[in-house]
Design brief:
The structure is a homodimer. By secondary structure, chain A is mostly helical. Chain A has three domains: 18-145, MgtE N-terminal domain-like (MgtE N-terminal fold, Alpha Horseshoe), CATH 1.25.60.10; 160-268, CBS-domain (Roll), CATH 3.10.580; 304-466, SLC41 divalent cation transporters, integral membrane domain (Tetracycline Repressor, domain 2, Orthogonal Bundle), CATH 1.10.357.20. Helices cover 66% and strands 6% of the residues of chain A. Chain A contains 23 helices and six strands. In chain A, the strands form two sheets. A three-stranded mixed sheet of chain A has the order 1-2-3. In chain A, helix 20 packs antiparallel against helix 23 (444-466) and helix 22 packs antiparallel against helix 23 (444-466). The longest helix of chain A is centred in the C-terminal third of the chain and has 31 residues, at 404-434. The first copy, chain A, is elongated. Mean pLDDT of chain A is 81; it is low at 1-12. Chains A and B meet through helix 1, helix 13, helix 14, strand 4 and helix 16 of A and helix 1, helix 13, helix 14, strand 4 and helix 16 of B.
Chain lengths: 469, 469
């Protein structure tokens, strides 16, 4: 994030541009200047139009939304429809004629249609599938049954394939003939007679090749592919790693069944990152749902479990304090350093945990790096611990005017806490991953609660030793 | 993250596949089976080869790395080179002949060459630019001077452009003539005589169009573009929002100067996310550097500032405790609930802060949603606060055997703390954004330290009121 960098430059604020368009459209609609609306719609991209439609639905109601939708040029209406939120998609399907529905369903990319069908109530599904053939319906059902977040649920069947012995000219002709329906024609696939994936050839290579070059001679055979059950995180990792525009999906026998295109990957990356961040804050089960779309009750359910678990862990911390109540009431000034020691321990541990969790997630740190991480965190934390201890020594003596022995207690405790917190914070996510627990869970909240516990234990042990209590 | 989901499926582990290849290659090299190495290299993709080369450099040293690099088929050696880390790139440049260097520089995409030049020491830069023309060197200098993380530093000059009045057949012929050097030919740009960007036309549209269709008739005029100074976060947002394969970069006069391609965007998204997460844990200034690449001293510098600032904030917390030392020493059992109240406050606040920070970053929550967030967080926190209070009431009475009045104090404090922490945690990132501070800074550590402060204040005020101290 670097909002401040382009904050002063309104023209480059992505939201500002689309908001301005949305407001302009709303104004024109209020003034019933429909011809102008039509003109503006014709010259704007589908993404901004879809967002404007959502605002219009919010501000002017469904009738106006459908009216605006009908003012769209016919060929871009389907693209706009594909970019709408499910809520608006369902409303529009409910409000337009069967004829208009048939047109949209006909033109919609296969994977967008599957996404739509997953959201629709049963009666609308029937309405939509009225005109599809029995075979198509069977295929649709297969797709609807792929597990959520699997490669199968992400793929489309709109891909182009041909045989090794086609020439480049024949292949381009074939693309021209069938290509209109394909979501992406930039990568085509070469299969043998059993539909097994043999290679991949880019439109770039086809266009640049001489007409009579054989496809088999320009295809790449080092194809990376996934199976229908591959998890979407793995899918997005492969796009990132290999810089792909499309990824073929094969069944267990290696036969091509669909492709995933790069435009669907950004959303997956965003969703996976959001899931990671939420988990790191002890928020579980938000899924792909947006903040305002979730009810208060649903929010409570996603946040309460970890708050409760961590609160219980403080019973142990409370127990430690009870044991040392005698010492605390005789040297009550010790209490005033408790929050600082616990807080600094928690913050130190969170820093290390976050760095390691992120490193594990990007693949920069691997499990076999365990000893390297331990050694590195130990040295880092030792430096930080010494520095913070020295500052505290000065503070306790010169600002708080407490005795040297109290200052020494605080300093030694601080050093041990920072070293322990950073080492535990760094290694806990790796240990979690090793036993199959998501490392993101071992972030801030869990680490803070753990460090609070041993910070106090360390503090009291040193205090009773040094102060002879 | 969903590691556990594909944990049991070794064949789909992206690292396992490339590690196996890397080990195989290392073994073959140790056995001096160079013909087999050459064979395996020819059938593997550039990304996996680049990673294997890095491992070979680590395990077998530079000589073996250069030997392996020379075993690569000539046409794929440049692609592999482009995927190497800067460290290995510099080592290889140092180890190969001037003739080999010239070949690489000749074939390298323009933006990859700029990236390389930015990393090289001055004497090597001269070696590389030995054969470039004066004009080329001027262009390279312009690119080297674009600010880091700006669109200018990301773009390439390898794009295809033509005029409106070309036909599709002419355009395809033009692509065929110049296309070999272009990093992406899937999107071509239409300019007027002053090089002003007029429209964009996809290779898809060109291939599907009839031969004599005019480019002007199939181009899109609703082009989204950025300027050379646009921040990379904005660039990646535009790719995400519009599902682009390439984005044109224009100068202040609207003239096309370069394009950015989708394959560079994944890395930016990853870097921006990492930066966000680090900031959220109070780690600043890691930049794009990897964990192990940073020295211990560098790590200390990235972590110490916020640890120090937050530690200082605990002086206030300590001051609050000192004021109430009298009360604490007379009812010492109050001390044992301090960590639980502070910890639960901190965790509650972190949850809300993280949800809002992430929502702001994905664009799902906007500044104008301030009142909605406040109201939602209030209701959520009230529910959670009541539930946690009830549990605590039972615990204080039945497990800790403390008096009812202590239990009531804890419960009321808990409720107020949770409500205050969640409301502050939710609104603080929005307030930060409104005044131009990165909202990611208002995450876990800052929120915890703040909530610790007022949690204790609230606790002591209620305790002295209820217990009459």
């Amino acid at each position: 994030m670097a909002n401040e960098k382009y904050r002063d430059d309104a023209e480059t604020d992505i939201n500002a541009v689309s908001e301005a368009f949305s407001e302009e459209l709303t104004d024109l609609l209020k003034q019933k200047k429909y011809a102008e609306v039509r003109g503006r719609l014709a010259e704007t991209n589908a993404v901004d139009i879809a967002e404007a439609l959502e605002n219009i639905n919010e501000e002017l109601g469904l009738d106006m939304t459908i009216l605006t939708f009908r003012l769209l040029p016919k060929d871009s209406s389907v693209e706009v429809f594909a970019y709408l939120d499910e809520e608006e998609q369902v409303s529009i399907i409910n409000g337009i004629t069967q004829h208009e529905i048939d047109y949209i369903i006909d033109e919609l990319a296969f994977d967008d249609m599957i996404d739509l069908l997953e959201e629709l109530p049963a009666n609308l599904v029937d309405k939509i599938l009225l005109k599809t053939s029995r075979e198509e319906r069977k295929l649709i059902n297969t797709f609807l049954n792929y597990p959520e977040n699997s490669a199968g649920s992400l793929m489309t069947i709109d891909y182009i394939d041909f045989r090794e012995n086609s020439t480049a000219a024949q292949a381009l002709r074939h693309i021209k003939d069938v290509g209109l329906d394909s979501e992406t024609i930039y990568t085509a696939y070469v299969m043998d007679e059993k539909r097994k994936l043999k290679g991949v050839v880019s439109l770039r290579a086809l266009v640049l090749a001489d007409d009579d070059t054989l496809v088999g001679d320009i295809m790449h055979t080092d194809v990376v592919s996934v199976t229908v059950t591959t998890d979407q995180e793995m899918v997005s990792n492969m796009f990132k790693r290999y810089g792909l525009l499309a990824l073929p999906v094969v069944d267990r026998e290696g036969r091509l069944v669909g492709i995933i295109t790069v435009d669907d990957i950004f959303e997956i990356i965003e969703d996976e990152t959001t899931e990671d961040m939420h988990l790191m804050a002890g928020v579980t089960g938000t899924g792909d749902d947006e903040y305002f779309d979730m009810s208060v009750f649903r929010h409570v359910r996603t946040r309460l479990p970890w708050l409760f678990i961590l609160m219980c862990s403080y019973m142990i911390t409370g127990g430690i304090i009870e044991r040392f109540e005698g010492m605390l009431s005789s040297v009550i000034c010790l209490v005033s350093y408790m929050p600082m020691l616990m807080g600094t321990g928690g913050n130190s541990g969170s820093q290390s945990a976050t760095l390691i969790i992120r490193g594990l997630s990007t693949g920069e740190i691997e499990l076999r790096d365990f000893p390297r991480v331990a050694w590195k965190e130990f040295r880092i934390s030792f430096c930080i611990g010494v520095l913070l201890s020295l500052l505290n020594f000065l503070r306790v003596i010169f600002i708080d005017h407490n005795s040297v022995i109290v200052a020494v207690t605080i300093c030694v405790t601080m050093l041990v806490i920072v070293v322990a917190a950073k080492t535990i914070g760094g290694l806990l996510p790796m240990a979690a991953k090793a036993v199959g627990i998501d490392p993101a869970l071992m972030a801030g909240p869990v680490v803070s609660s753990l460090t609070d516990m041993f910070s106090l234990a360390i503090y009291f042990v040193f205090a009773s030793a040094f102060l002879g209590l």
